Amino acid sequence: SQKIEQNSEALNIQEGKTATLTCNYTNYSPAYLQWYRQDPGRGPVFLLLIRENEKEKRKERLKVTFDTTLKQSLFHITASQPADSATYLCALAGNTGKLIFGQGTTLQVKP
Amino acid sequence: KAGVTQTPRYLIKTRGQQVTLSCSPISGHRSVSWYQQTPGQGLQFLFEYFSETQRNKGNFPGRFSGRQFSNSRSEMNVSTLELGDSALYLCASSLSTSGGASPYEQYFGPGTRLTVT
Q1: Chain B residues lying within 8 Å of A102, measured CB to CB
Q2: Cβ contact A46:B106 at 8 Å
Q3: Which of chain B's termini has less CB crowding within 10 Å, N or C?
Q4: In whole angstroms, what is the distance from residue A94 CA to residue A72 CA?
Q5: Is A27 in contact with A44 (CB distance < 8 Å)?
Q6: Given A42, A97, A103, which is nearest B96 (Cβ)?
Q7: Residue of B35, B58, B105 lying closest to A49 (CB–CB)
Q8: Distance from C-alpha of A90 to C-alpha of A86, rounded to nearest angstrom
Q9: Per residue of chain B (117 residues), what is the pLDDT tens digit?
């Protein structure tokens, strides 16, 4: 069955460092992949989208890579700030457009 | 532009009862999706409606149903509630078109927190 795995443990980093979050998937050939941010008690907020034929996408301090051979996406936040502390979700979609979400990785940026 | 709104925000029900949750999408969005979020299972897709028709469906029992109205507002219903239905139910809308496969971002509402006792 389709499976998406994100870092199960929380990621703790120091302010100013680069945070790298991983999203691995199996038994799936997604047409595109999205990353969302979720704060406690709120709905997820869209951050970035990358298609299967794209290797990398950037938006301000955010960068996403997508390796369909390794079946992996990496999400980077450079110059991290305490305000970046949240849970980050990756979501994959095939040709039907239905999104399947990973469990999320909680990022804690310490000042 | 107003965001996605969901009502009610919190709900407490007893096992065996039924519940109806409501979602108003962003103006102009015709696609509405519903998700269930629990600590153990994460965010799981329930179903998607587009132009009053269910377009995609997740792996949930028939107790979970939904509908969409001509103004794109959507409701989801859960009948014969079980303790395991306690969760945050999230609604999301998007600019997805009739093709369905385009990668449109989802705009999520704040969710309805359902507690079944």
Answers
A1: 42
A2: yes
A3: N
A4: 15
A5: no
A6: A97
A7: B105
A8: 13
A9: 789 999 999 999 999 999 999 999 999 999 999 999 998 889 999 999 999 999 889 999 999 999 999 999 999 999 999 999 999 999 999 987 766 556 788 999 999 999 999
